[in-house]
Write a structure and sequence with these properties.
Helix content: 40-55%
Number of helices: 8
Order of helices and strands: EHEHEHEHEHEEEEHHHEE
Distance between the termini: 33 Å
Low-confidence stretches: none
Mean pLDDT: 85
Radius of gyration: 18 Å
Oligomer: single chain
Number of strands: 11
Structural class: alpha/beta
Strand order of the largest sheet: 2-1-3-4-5
Length: about 220
Amino acid sequence: MHILLIEDEIALAEEICQSLRKQNYAVSHLTLGKQAILAARNGDIDLMILDLGLPDVDGLQVLTSIRELGLTLPILILTARGQLSDKIIGLDAGADDYLPKPFELDELLVRLRVLQRRLGSVVTSTIRLGHVQLHTDSLLVLLDEVALQLPKKEFMILRALMERADRIVSKSQLETMLYEWGGEVSSNAIEVHVHNLRKKLPEGFIQTIRGVGYCIKKEYPIST
């Protein structure tokens, strides 16, 4: 899952990003509301954490603009505006959840897990596609109930593809996700990791969409 954090308090943003990466989320960080609207329009974000007190555009205006674009991206609001009326305004404007500052990071993580379940693509910490099971909480991958030994970067690529089953994920998107997970990415890293994954997974599980990227189908072909 790729989370976009919009927060202009740098120290808080760094703390949140670090905590999210420890939980194996890909996370990117922006400080301006206009950037948030552009990022939401461009896609490749699964969930947004949005501060309301931004230096250029009020967070409620950002939220309204995103919803006016017809985007259903889950958005969790962070704000120092803790009055009930503020919460009602935020939820009425299209927010999926509302967390007043100050907050505990554990509570933020719980709320993110709830929103993740609402997405429908990942109902639990286990993703199952055919004979392959991926456990997001334990970094474990099973093929026909047998554990595979995957380096972290291979696991992250596989997770990104399985979470987006039936969607094409480009090489540049995977590079961005690896970077946002805190990994270094060389020029041919994605091809190498995908090649290595294919040797460990069923034939045809990861498909190459020539000139576009990679895709895992929910109903992938099983060779006999």
